[in-house]
Fold this sequence. Notes:
By secondary structure, this protein is an alpha+beta fold. Among the domains are: 27-63, no CATH class; 66-155, Winged helix-like DNA-binding domain superfamily/Winged helix DNA-binding domain (Arc Repressor Mutant, subunit A, Orthogonal Bundle), CATH 1.10.10. Helix content is 27%, strand content 23%. It has four helices and eight strands. The strands form three sheets. A three-stranded antiparallel β-sheet has the order 1-2-3, with no helix packed on it. Strands 4-8-7 form a three-stranded antiparallel β-sheet. Helix 2 (85-100) crosses helix 3. The protein is extended.
Amino acid sequence: MSQTKKITNLRRLKLSPKINPLVEQSLSIRVKNSMVATKMSNDLVDTKTGEQHNHALIHTLKVVDNQNFVKVFTEGVRKAFELNKTEMRVFCKVLEIYEQERMTGGYADSITLCWFDGGLNGDKIGMSDRTFQNGLKGLLNKGFLSPKLRGSFWINPTLFFKGDRVAFITEYRRNKETEQDRLEQEGQQRLIK
Length: 193
């Protein structure tokens, strides 16, 4: 795939002195191995107040092979849910088992996780029963799985899926400093009620 660079002649710029042409359009550009798109939007609505919030959206699309997709997906889930090392190891093993499940209705809705013969579903996985149970507790507490029957668990279809696309969205909000915060930074003590 050849990539041609757009060369701008600074002496022949198309001027727009009264209207900013970048306000109402979204922009998509190719950078090295990905595509970046930008857009201003007010699609976010505060459900409590009904107030719309403007936000800038910068979307990067990267195409990766199968092996790297799984790595990117699991790393994104680890960061988003702040999984510890044990939870991450168990998540990866559960994901492997999930990948082997038969699909019904577009996805597998439950999996069997039994510890026997010194391993998960009889297969050695390089951890003790106690370590596995600790990781499993973390995944249950964080909504990855939900008990169905003894040794059988419902899966969260947004975290276990057999699709080929995933988007991790991180929204950054500026911390709004109150007058009280400003006064405290200047040394004034907070009044206790």
